[in-house]
Amino acid sequence: MTATLAEVRKGSADDEGVGTDSAQGPRADRPRRRNFTPEYKAAIVAEYDALTEPGARGALLRREGLYSSHIVEWRRARDAGALDGLARSGGRGKDRDQAEIERLRKRAERAEAELERTRAALDLVGKAHALLETLSRARARVEEVIAQLLPEVERLTSTAKACALLGKPRASLYRQRNRPAGPRRKPGRADRRPMRSTRPSARRSLRCCASRASPTRRSPKCGPSCSTRASTCARSPRCTGSCARTT
Which of 51, 72, 219, 230 could form a disulfide with 56, with the two C-beta atoms 3.0–4.6 Å apart? Predict the structure, then answer.
């Protein structure tokens, strides 16, 4: 175990740069972040668990410059089966990739479910449209059959019950029965009331015609230009004298 751990430690130092003095520059004397390979972690955890003597585990941690938190974290990773191929620098990136893959997978599942629901809805709409077309074509025939059966059922029961049994609205039945026999005629120009003319000459003509047709409004002795309303124009003091009096 000691030889194997030494080889693993040497390989880890060669691969990750742990314990080397190759870095040169103004910051070469500053402490560097230590990186551990998965093999080194597995070997340290196995050796740590194998030690049973008092103080042996603490001596291992002091010799390797580790803390008990390292052992706890590495043991948890080993028990989860993620220690092989899991480095400190690449573990978080791998977790992020796995999370992104899981998110995309769930998104694809939701999109597929939504697509299935849309297809089902379109299928139902198509079936409903075909059914409506069939019913619209058969509606005329249904109306004919109802019109033939309605009088017979009406003689046996009543109009309300016959309409309810055959699915015929009573308002439609009464409207059809009360409809005139002849074709409906739209009101023409002759049926419309003439519009009132606003010309003064037309109003004067209508007023004179009304005066001549009403003997109680004017005296026969008054001319068309008389302004009085008395029944005897010749004896009325209100007569202006503009009418042509007859003797």
Answer: 51
Task: Give the domain range for residue 171.
Answer: 96-177
- Tokens representing residue 116 in the block: 């299935």
Q: For residue range 99-123, what is the model confidence (pLDDT) as tens digits?
A: 889 889 999 999 999 998 888 878 8
Same structural domain, 111 and 137: yes
Which single residue is written with the structure tokens 């058969």?
A: 138
Q: Tokens for 62, please give them.
A: 């002091």
pLDDT digits (tens, 9 = 90+) for 164-177: 877 788 888 888 88
Residue the block writes with tokens 């002091």: 62
Q: Among 99, 109, 43, 104, which residue's Cα sits nearest to residue 70? A: 43
CA 206 to chain centre: 66
Query: How far is it, in rounded angstroms, from Cα 172 to Cα 162?
Result: 13
CA distance 159 to 129: 34
Number of independent structural domains in the chain: 2
Write out the E strands in the chain: none
120: tokens are 């089902």
Asked if 9 and 82 sit in the same domain, the reply is yes
- Using an 8 Å Cβ cutoff, are 13 and 5 in contact? no
Distance CA 235, CA 230 (A): 9
Please give the DSSP secondary-structure letter assigned to residue 218.
S
CA 69 to chain centre: 55
